Amino acid sequence: MSFFKRLKNKLTTQSDTVTEKFKDGLTKTRASFSTRINDLVKNYRKVDEEFFEELEEILIEADVGVSTVMDLIDELKDEARTQNIKETEELQGVISEKLAELLDKGDDDTKLNIQEDELTVILFVGVNGVGKTTSIGKLAHKLKQEGKSVLMAAGDTFRAGAIDQLQVWGNRVGVDVIKHSEGADPAAVVFDAVKSAKTRGVDVLLCDTAGRLQNKVNLMNELEKIKRVIGRELPGAPHEVLLVVDATTGQNAMNQAKTFSQATDVSGIVLTKLDGTAKGGIVLAIRHELEIPVKLVGLGEKVEDLYEFDADQFVYGLFSNILPNVEEEESVDRY
Amino acid sequence: MAFEGLADRLQQTLQKVRGKGKVTEADVKVMMREVRLALLEADVNFKVVKRFVAKVKERAIGQEVLESLTPGQQVVKVVNEELTALMGGEQSKIAVANKPPTVVMMVGLQGAGKTTSTGKLANHLRKKNNRQPLLVAADVYRPAAINQLQTLGKQLSMPVFDLGTDVSPVEIAKQGIAKAKEEHHDYVIIDTAGRLHIDEGLMGELAQIKEIAKPDEILLVVDAMTGQDAVNVAESFHEQLGLTGVVLTKLDGDTRGGAALSIKSVTDTPIKFVGMGEKLDALEPFHPERMASRILGMGDVLSLIEKAQTNVDEKKAKELEEKMRTMSFTFDDFLEQLTQVRSMGPLDELLGMLPGAGQMKQLKNVKVDEKQLNHVEAIIQSMTKGEKLHPETINASRKKRIAKGSGRSVQEVNRLLKQFEDMKKMMKQMSNMQKGKKKGGMGNMKFPFM
Ligand SMILES: Nc1nc2c(ncn2[C@@H]2O[C@H](COP(=O)(O)OP(=O)(O)O)[C@@H](O)[C@H]2O)c(=O)[nH]1
Ligand SMILES: Nc1nc2c(ncn2[C@@H]2O[C@H](COP(=O)(O)OP(=O)(O)O)[C@@H](O)[C@H]2O)c(=O)[nH]1
Ligand SMILES: [Mg+2]
Ligand SMILES: [Mg+2]
């Protein structure tokens, strides 16, 4: 099935499942992005150097990633030349096709890998201050609402007040927290937590870790060790290693994804703070280059502000007005 | 690092435009494309990049290329100068109120590093300026935020004022300042909750705190990894609060930190400090020139350019060229050359600093043996004046004497003599090549110390 067909199908059959909140959060992204592409096509009737420059800027501004953008622009220029396209309107279709190619990985599974009838361990990793602890609190709430029993491990023993912070979330959503004192070995905390989760027979264990910049070798080694300890205690675990990425991050997010993947084999991304004006476009480059899908999206600081990521919705949200033949449809304006 | 530095990029582009006396418009055009990409990759906002590139272009065209630089290096020099100028001077001073206490307000997005920077700044003020700050915990939203500041206070043995989470931040700020006056603290640092610049309610709250606290400093704390959105954030905070400075955090990572340039350019307030780690002593003054070369990703090219400018005497360089042409290059000249080059720093490092050195096959795995260099020097120094001028007169017995004098073997003396002859021949070739008389590679170039 073609990308657009799949997209359209999804929209007609699935639109109800997309929460209002998700849409609200993406409005800014979408509005500025697609409006500008539309304006662009209107303002520049001719396909020329200036037009491409502007298009390039629109993509760059979304933090999509410089090399990704440059490649795309080069391809578009080639297309325009070989197909002898002179009017920008004609190029619109090609633009959206190229974008879709870039973004569509087809069978990407963005659902969390939650085991049936056995313990699932999810490890949260990422740089400092991106929203790991908050996302754990929010996810705990979400899982509980789905009827799962949850346990949390206070694996950030380094940052001042980090254990208390997770405990507050624990109290807020009614989930126990396994913790040691500040300065304790995080691997030991996680070890205890896995054991405890097994004896208690909980469904999901969420492990917090201290934020660390990916160029700190010892800290990355520590993370590897934490993961190893989990695997030793429960073969096959962790079932998910989620890299938390702040949507305001620029090109460095690519480095983060690469290095954290090397250390812990990241299985998905939680994209936080998308309720701001930042567009988080770098996840497209990450998905394209490293094939790591975004699985969850953070749209605020409250318990309910975590959403499952729908790649098609995201893409559609970003590029809706430049997708071919969709703009006439009623439902489209709403996304 | 994932991206190559500007130096390498320019090097590739510049193979075409090397060795001309003036920087031409065409040269600048190709080079500016690379400068633009480098800045965008460093997360400098695209609008800021546009303005910047236009300015540099104007300045670079028609510039005389310094004797010791290639046109590429010349352009890098202009770029760097402009970038440094844009970054502003070093201004890591915190305001002092006429009537104490001086009030500092920390503001910014969620997770930027406000609370940590509050602790660091307090530590800095006490250590460097002998001040007695009071920390005020005005983040009542983030879970355990007060706790976090209290823990930092404990680590520093510094008092932290709080009223729990049920009192408004405006009230906390007010009472905190009153308390500071009462207890004769000379500084009050207010740690506020992170908020989005588009959150009208919470931005309004900051404005209220500002009205009550009348801060002498409002510092925007920004994550150095921020992307294109940095301009929006900085602009909003500045518009609504009137910032007096910026703290750029997490610069101990491997980000280029182009956000610094964006923020500086839209707010025109100084970046006062940078965060270089999670510990409480990891706060450093901001160095504009370091930030400039970090953003450009040029490593030490700039210091090489500086060194080249100060160390290489132009007249001597001309003389040398003349000698190369006429083959009158002697061991004395060689020794002088060697000393001059060595005065610029360890040779390995120098080679590493040369843009594009990584691409030259011959230099790829060169490990310059400093010991070997010392030996070469010793051998030359053991020659007589006449021998240095006329190495062809060095016969077997002289060789033995030189070997003995320098503590090296006769074989080593032989090797050096042979290499010196080869080098002279090659120099002749090179100088001919430069004048375009003869085509030929430098592939077999071999210095005595390689
Ligand atoms: N606006 C917004 N703030 C968030 C989101 N996720 C986390 N935060 C805030 O970001 C800050 C850092 O979050 P935290 O979970 O402590 O980050 P950690 O250091 O990675 O554990 C806190 O102030 C959170 O409330 C989000 O999706 N939107
Ligand atoms: N590596 C590094 N981490 C930092 C720096 N400044 C703050 N952090 C970390 O960033 C995270 C968020 O800091 P915090 O002060 O809680 O941010 P706030 O939400 O703005 O108050 C914490 O994990 C800090 O330890 C820095 O300069 N370098
Ligand atoms: Mg945390
Ligand atoms: Mg804080």
Global shape of chain A:
elongated
Query: Order of strands across the biggest sheet of chain A?
Result: 3-2-4-1-5-6-7-8
The shape of chain B, in one word, is elongated
H/E element order of chain B = HHHHEHEHEHEHEHEHEEHHHHHHHHHH
Range of strand content of chain A: 5-15%
Q: How many extended strands of chain B?
A: 8
Main β-sheet description of chain B? 8 strands, mixed
Rounded to the nearest angstrom, the radius of gyration of chain A is 21 Å
Tell me about the largest β-sheet of chain A: 8 strands, mixed
Q: Oligomer, anyone?
A: heterodimer
Low-pLDDT stretches of chain A: 1-19, 320-335
Secondary-structure-based class of chain A equals alpha/beta
Strands in their spatial order, largest beta sheet of chain B: 3-2-4-1-5-6-7-8
Helical segment count of chain B: 20
Considering the chains and any ligands shown, give keywords for the structure.
A: 335 residues; alpha/beta; 12 helices; 8 strands; disordered N terminus; disordered C terminus; B: 450 residues; eight-stranded mixed β-sheet; binds magnesium ion
